[in-house]
Amino acid sequence: MTKPTLSRRGVLKTGAAAGVGLALPTYLSAASHSGFTNAPQGDTVTLGFNVPQSGPYADEGADELRAYQLAVEHLNGEGDGGMMNTFSSQVLEGNGIMGKKVEYVTGDTQTKSDAARASAKSMIEKDGAVMITGGSSSGVAIAVQGLCQEAGVIFMSGLTHSNDTTGKDKKANGFRHFFNGYMSGAALAPVLAAQYGEDRKAYHLTADYTWGWTQQESIAAATEALGWTTVENVLTPLAATDFSSYIAPVLNSGADVLVLNHYGGNMVNSLTNAVQFGLREKMVDGKQFEIVVPLFSRLMARGAGENVKGILGSTNWHWSLQDEASQAFVKSFGTKYGFPPSQAAHTCYVQTLLYADAVARAGSFNPCAVVEALEGFEFDGLGNGPTLYRAEDHQCFKDVLVVRGKENPTSEFDLLEVVEVTPRAQVEYAPDHPMFAGGNLGQCNPGA
Amino acid sequence: MLGLKKHDLSLLIIVAILTMAAPFLLNPFPTESGMAQFNAGYPDLMQKFVIFGIFAIGFNILFGLTGYLSFGHAAFLGVGSYACVWMFKLLGYNVLPGILLSIVVSGLFALLIGVITLRRSGIYFSILTLAFAQMSFALAYSVLSNPKFNLTNGETGLQVYADDPQWFHSDRLPDLPHLFGLSMRATHRMELGAWEFQFNVGYYMCAVIMLLCFYLAIRIFRSPFGLMLRAVKSNQQRMNYTGLNSRPYTLAAFVISGMYAGLAGGLLSAVDPLAGAERMQWTASGEVVLMTILGGAGTLIGPVLGAGLIKYFENIFSKINESVLHGWFGFLPDGLEDFVITLVYPFVGKGWHLTLGVIFMLVVIFLPGGLVEGGQRIGRLFRGKKPSGAAKSATTEPAE
Amino acid sequence: MDAIILQILNGLDKGSAYALIALGLTLIFGTLGVVNFAHGALFMIGAFCSVTLSKLLNLSFETVDPTQKDFLGNPLKVKTPYVESWFGPEVGATIIDWSVPLAILFAIPIMLVIGYVMERGLIKHFYKRPHADQILVTFGLAIVLQEIVKFYFGANPIQTPAPDALSGVANLGGALGLQIAYPIWRLVYIGFSLLLIFGAFAFLQFTTFGMVVRAGMADRETVQLLGIDIDRRFTIMFGLAAAIAGLAGVMYGPINAPNYHMGMDFLVLSFVVVVVGGMGSLPGAVLAGFLLGILEAFASTTWATTTIPGINQIIIYLVAIIVLLTRPRGLMGKKGVMED
């Protein structure tokens, strides 16, 4: 056995530790006097950026990280300031947050709830992060949001689209800027009805996990309200890579619209397969067959290549928006990195600014003060028009974009065109809407 | 003492000292220094070290002794986690019933699967266990989380909601997993000059349990039962010809290692009350295989070392980003700094998988007996001696 | 009827990929006795050969077009591939369009070299080591290979479309009055796989080289005693197995866009296929590949999933369990292989 090695090392280390103990006999218990977890000490404040760096969403995570780095630069007064100049709340001064320089730590969620929580915990326990943000899937967002609630830090979610994040699983310490499945349905359905007619038969392919279900439920409800019928809803395994055996039955099902409730690699493959099977050229009872991808992202559209042309979907934000704020963001992101930001990058950048602003307005890093400052906060100038952080469920309400895959892209980034900006009023819902029922925000938790 | 030989007893004592002093040993660098990035002495990672240590010790009882390579042990880890969270949901946040139930449930599950899979050996056994684990994962991820019968809560992971019954929960008790009122999250921070050390209740509970498991493993390794298991590995056929039925022994080993895995799963939930289905995926099963082989299959301490190494990489190396690198190499002239960072960058942060892959290869190529063999070589180097008999007997050949 | 035929085609299609990877795995196992966990990575590298080729063909020079603007408002840089300027736009575009079939020619030498280097540089040293060590080292290699690909190509899938002429839909049932519209490229894939499989079998069956290799698989020592350098031949077989996996990857690209972890996605399933077929049996691997492919296709139909919820996710594993419990060595396995 390794007794010799171990004891040797053990002796050395214990010796070292004992030496330290003798040399520095001052004993300090660091029980926080400040009344909340990880109160920033000294002249810096640490934020935790928890994004997927390995696994299939790594590219999206990398884009999120770029946005965070940009946001930190802007908060610390470097660079051109980006959306800080267009933000309706002009509290931030470019001197960090409340005069404390912003520092950050990064971690890898691996798009697994366990790994994401482990990474977030290390940020909280080891690095003293006072806020955690990021993520690229709803499972991870909900898992980390729950952790932050328990630990007493703020969670500003990144890309998470499931209704549950601010529904069944909402938490007082968690905030979502991104839109959700219900909003996608509410924004998309009228456009679909207007473009494809009200007499349509839809066939749903749905990723078989919580996000897929809530998305499918939302889209089906919204389209059925406008006269569509749902022929069939088929659940597909998350691990599926080839969707041919799910697509083939669509051919002779009598349906004339295929709705793909998929994201990421699933979406790329199912859309590719659907186009392969000639669905885009198919005619059913004199009607052109159509494919719909309710949640679009430019990064994924890029993975799907030619196949996205003409396909309708919804998105949280797109770089081609012409408002001053979006332009400012695209300019400073594009100048730094050489390509336009994705919607994931946008929501992460905005979340960081919103957090910093809330702290500055509250005058404290205490999570409860931040929660109070964010609840019911009305703002503008962050790329989505006038926006409300609703107090009841910590969900942002703003305009939703309906987009279409561009037929003649001028560059590798120019893949989507905005068809309609659905006004905020149209996507609003009551906090106790059945699709969001069952959750409880609880009390804000300041931790220690 | 404790029914152990002197050699094993000293090993146990060393391990005990190391685990008890881990908060010091794992935080060798001052908090504000650049090297603090490499500190691992914070509660979550220390908990992971000992919990995955338990998982690997248990796996080694099956693989290291009998040579049966299970590719489905993560299923027991997952079942244990779910069982424990269900106890939280039904009874309340005391961890004791949850941990006990996770051992019982995973033991039963292992018995069921073991009876079926142990009818085959070699790679056929491996694939059978893999098949069961993958089925469990697929079902837990989707079918078993449908709204009508929600056993696992699917993608989000099973967690405690405010409207769960929690029959024995009272307002006096912490609203997080606890042991008779002592919260698992309770951490005492001690500052010694530039250093900060964290003493966490959850960690110490897991560490004590790991020591118990380690002790039990030593006893199993040294018992007639353990000898019988080794016989299965070295030549099952000859054993069968002598009229011994080896199946009950392998089944017992399988169930015991399944219970270890379930215990590890229960402890994971106890220190962090959320159980995700990914814990059952084949990659998780593969991870424990890697931990065991990396550390040294068939040795007592090897699996624990392997578990520590892999978790260290996952949690520490993945957090090194470009700005950290600039911090480290900032003292270099600009051109050189950029050059060094380009060189190092692919291996840290998002490239931590790459480093892990390279280490797997290096260890297997140069240290066939895993880290333990590396330790022995260094030990020999220092003492300038040939391997002693004791070292030889403890290191069995890695199994096929 | 139409639906059944469609699903059989889907099954053959999935089965082709399984069978090709499993065939390579079995070749390596049967000849060298090595469990190669990096085989999925070889499949992935094959697919990325075609990504690389299409990148090379699309190497472009930039001209500034002041009439259009890019996203920052600067004049747009229009890219023209060199191929188009050398051979004229028409020919150039055709070459780019046919980049996937061209990639076959590109991939064969690359995969042979990769296979050769892998065997000589690494696997060679692991013949006498336990299977667990082989698994660990090849798994490590697989991680390293896929991380390298991820570093250069990113994590997102990259489309490698089929040539226009082969990317439509063929109506197969016209003559029979059935509605069977099936993607042409998938039919090409099935045909290509069958060709490759028959080629491999014919090579082993009807050439002297193949005969020696088969003799070596049956009794390595005796063949060596006859003064034949069996190691060299086995090395070539490793290269060949790598090439088969690589070609399977190249041709799979247009079906589903390649990404860096596609190898891992196929790895576990391929192992199940090999074991269900029977370790060391080449016909078994092919048979099990197609069988499991077809079963998977049928388990995905609505009829199956409503009868038994979740059957589509577990069917392969369920079949594996049933086969292994009723036929201890898989469908066509030989006695004494990998049982100790």
Automatic annotation (TrEMBL), chain A:
GO terms for biological process: amino acid transport. SUPFAM superfamilies: Periplasmic binding protein-like I. CDD domains: PBP1_SBP-like. Residues 44-406 form the Leucine-binding protein domain. Residues 1-30 form the signal peptide. Keywords: Amino-acid transport, Signal, Transport. PANTHER family: LEUCINE-SPECIFIC-BINDING PROTEIN (PTHR30483), PERIPLASMIC BINDING PROTEIN OF ABC TRANSPORTER FOR NATURAL AMINO ACIDS (PTHR30483:SF6). Belongs to the leucine-binding protein family. This is Branched-chain amino acid ABC transporter, periplasmic substrate-binding protein. The lineage of its organism: Bacteria, Pseudomonadati, Pseudomonadota, Alphaproteobacteria, Rhodobacterales.
From TrEMBL, chain B:
GO terms for cellular component: plasma membrane. The keyword Cell membrane applies. One of its GO terms (molecular function) is branched-chain amino acid transmembrane transporter activity. It is a multi-pass membrane protein. InterPro entries: ABC_transp_permease, LivM-like. The chain crosses the membrane at residues 9-29, 49-68, 99-116, 123-144, 201-221, 248-268, 288-313, 354-372. It is found in: Cell membrane. Keywords: Cell membrane, Membrane, Transmembrane, Transmembrane helix. The keyword Plastid does not apply. It comes from the Bacteria. Pfam families: BPD_transp_2. PANTHER family: ABC TRANSPORTER ATP-BINDING PROTEIN, HIGH-AFFINITY BRANCHED-CHAIN AMINO ACID TRANSPORT SYSTEM PERMEASE. This is Branched-chain amino acid ABC transporter, permease protein. It comes from Pseudooceanicola batsensis (strain ATCC BAA-863 / DSM 15984 / KCTC 12145 / HTCC2597).
From TrEMBL, chain C:
It comes from Pseudooceanicola batsensis (strain ATCC BAA-863 / DSM 15984 / KCTC 12145 / HTCC2597) (Oceanicola batsensis). The chain crosses the membrane at residues 16-35, 42-61, 95-114, 192-213, 233-254, 266-295, 307-325. InterPro entries: ABC_transp_permease, BCAA_transport_permease. One of its GO terms (molecular function) is transmembrane transporter activity. Its main location: membrane. It is a multi-pass membrane protein. GO terms for cellular component: plasma membrane. This is Branched-chain amino acid ABC transporter, permease protein. Keywords: Amino-acid transport, Cell membrane, Membrane, Transmembrane, Transmembrane helix, Transport. Belongs to the binding-protein-dependent transport system permease family. LivHM subfamily. It comes from the Bacteria.
